């Protein structure tokens, strides 16, 4: 079977500090050979750079996450521009919009989001997008900025919204939530979507799958996500593994 690519894993998170080497070993044993490590704030960039330089198969993405507005400053956007020019990461992100969490200023979110999209377009880099109760506006902003590619991770939108993203060339990141039987709309989308727009992810240490409920998630659990996706689509596990890894390599290099 083709090695797997976890397209969204926060391996730099403090929750992995005590056993990060073990987490990486278990991931490799499960066939997860590559991981994209997206940043959430300026303070995380240095640690992600060091982690990815030290471990083969890890690729960095640098950005400013909408849920951490209180950690961001306009100067960080200027620093991001410099980092993208000198570091040439795999992607810009995690960035986007979050209208679910109360107290996050929508206008400030929009300013940080649009500027990061503009930087991604300038440096010809894909974007890793967070869109919670904000998919429609995220799609509209992508169209306004134009010239972009990337993935909406932890997909939770409608089938029509997914179709619009496919037409724009975007991928959907599918992880633990698809393993829950109650996620009927998500499961329909995954069953019917074009295979060349599908990425697998864990979002570890968050969003554990149904078999791992209540526990710290980790990239080795990507194998269970793969099994469920293959079952929903009625396709061989090996075919899904090969296609999703090819998709991630095409997007992130």
From TrEMBL:
<feature type="binding site">
    <location>
        <position position="130"/>
    </location>
    <ligand>
        <name>a divalent metal cation 2</name>
    </ligand>
</feature>
<dbReference type="GO" id="GO:0046872">
    <property type="term" value="F:metal ion binding"/>
</dbReference>
<dbReference type="GO" id="GO:0016788">
    <property type="term" value="F:hydrolase activity, acting on ester bonds"/>
</dbReference>
<feature type="binding site">
    <location>
        <position position="203"/>
    </location>
    <ligand>
        <name>a divalent metal cation 1</name>
    </ligand>
</feature>
<dbReference type="GO" id="GO:0005829">
    <property type="term" value="C:cytosol"/>
</dbReference>
<dbReference type="InterPro" id="IPR001130">
    <property type="entry name" value="TatD-like"/>
</dbReference>
<keyword id="KW-0378">Hydrolase</keyword>
<dbReference type="InterPro" id="IPR032466">
    <property type="entry name" value="Metal_Hydrolase"/>
</dbReference>
<protein>
    <recommendedName>
        <fullName>TatD family hydrolase</fullName>
    </recommendedName>
</protein>
<dbReference type="InterPro" id="IPR018228">
    <property type="entry name" value="DNase_TatD-rel_CS"/>
</dbReference>
<feature type="binding site">
    <location>
        <position position="8"/>
    </location>
    <ligand>
        <name>a divalent metal cation 1</name>
    </ligand>
</feature>
<dbReference type="Pfam" id="PF01026">
    <property type="entry name" value="TatD_DNase"/>
</dbReference>
<feature type="binding site">
    <location>
        <position position="153"/>
    </location>
    <ligand>
        <name>a divalent metal cation 2</name>
    </ligand>
</feature>
<feature type="binding site">
    <location>
        <position position="10"/>
    </location>
    <ligand>
        <name>a divalent metal cation 1</name>
    </ligand>
</feature>
<feature type="binding site">
    <location>
        <position position="94"/>
    </location>
    <ligand>
        <name>a divalent metal cation 1</name>
    </ligand>
</feature>
<comment type="similarity">
    <text>Belongs to the metallo-dependent hydrolases superfamily. TatD-type hydrolase family.</text>
</comment>
<keyword id="KW-0479">Metal-binding</keyword>
């Amino acid at each position: 079977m083709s090695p797997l690519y976890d397209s969204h894993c926060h391996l730099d998170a403090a929750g992995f500090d005590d056993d990060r080497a073990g987490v990486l070993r278990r991931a490799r044993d499960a066939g997860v050979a590559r991981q994209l490590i997206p940043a959430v704030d300026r303070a995380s960039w240095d640690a992600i750079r060091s982690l990815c330089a030290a471990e083969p198969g890890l690729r960095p993405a640098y950005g400013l996450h909408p849920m951490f507005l209180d950690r961001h400053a306009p100067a960080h956007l200027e620093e991001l521009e410099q980092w993208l020019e000198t570091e040439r990461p795999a992607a810009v992100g995690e960035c986007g919009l979050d209208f679910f969490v109360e107290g996050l200023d929508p206008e400030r979110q929009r300013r940080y989001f649009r500027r990061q999209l503009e930087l991604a377009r300038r440096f010809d880099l894909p974007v890793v997008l967070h869109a919670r109760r904000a998919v429609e506006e995220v799609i509209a902003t992508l169209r306004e900025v134009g010239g972009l590619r990337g993935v909406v991770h932890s997909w939770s939108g409608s089938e029509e919204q997914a179709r619009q993203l496919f037409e724009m060339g975007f991928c959907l990141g599918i992880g633990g939530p698809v393993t829950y039987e109650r996620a009927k709309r998500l499961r329909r989308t995954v069953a019917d979507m074009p295979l060349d727009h599908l990425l697998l992810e864990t979002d570890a240490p968050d969003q554990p799958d149904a078999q791992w409920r209540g526990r710290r998630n980790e990239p080795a659990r990507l194998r269970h996500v793969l099994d469920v996706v293959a079952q929903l689509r009625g396709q061989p596990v090996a075919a899904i593994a090969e296609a999703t890894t090819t998709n991630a390599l095409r997007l992130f290099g």
